[in-house]
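Dear Dr. K.,

Following up on our conversation at the group meeting, I've run the structure prediction for Cobalamin adenosyltransferase from Caenimonas aquaedulcis. I'm pasting the input sequence below exactly as I used it, so you can double-check it against your construct before we proceed with anything downstream. Let me know if the numbering doesn't match what you have in your notebook.
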Amino acid sequence: MGKRLTQIATRTGDNGTTGLGDNTRVSKDSLRVHAMGDVDELNSHIGVLLCEEMEPGVRELLVEVQHQLFNLGGELSIPGFELLKPEALLALDNALADYNARLPKLEEFILPAGNRAASQAHVCRTVARRAERAVVALGAVENVRETPRQYLNRLSDLLFVLARVLNRMNGGDDVYWKSERLARGSE
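The predicted structure tokens came back this morning:
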């Protein structure tokens, strides 16, 4: 892996390039750098979410997700290298099944709202979708393993479910969309 940072202001990026983990330099507007940035932003938003009150199991899951996102970002920064393991995807699948089973069946669309923790989980979900799109775009022009794309896809689903879980803390509920079309159909 590349060098660990010992100095933050290196000035090596002043020319519009950045270093990858394999010591190559690429433009800061490359698809790879966009994907790395979106994953980093997602990880930062999850850090904000972790400032909120939540049950210990959700907290532990999100901390593990942060570590896996760091692996994913590292993998993106070193073309051809594998850091995100398939077991990380399996852990998301298991968590998704577990938390989804605790929730009532969803029969209406919900808004990305509710308490602050749930709302932040929805922000994380949308950033995960953007990161997934960035990885898909990168994969269209460069070789990218499928695990990072799958991980982000599954993570966005899990974040949706966790937003519902977080909305139920202290007796809350989802915030349902009031569809005019659905309302007219029930008249």
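Two things stood out to me. The chain is about 60% helix and 5% strand. The chain has a mean pLDDT of 90.

Best regards,
J.T.
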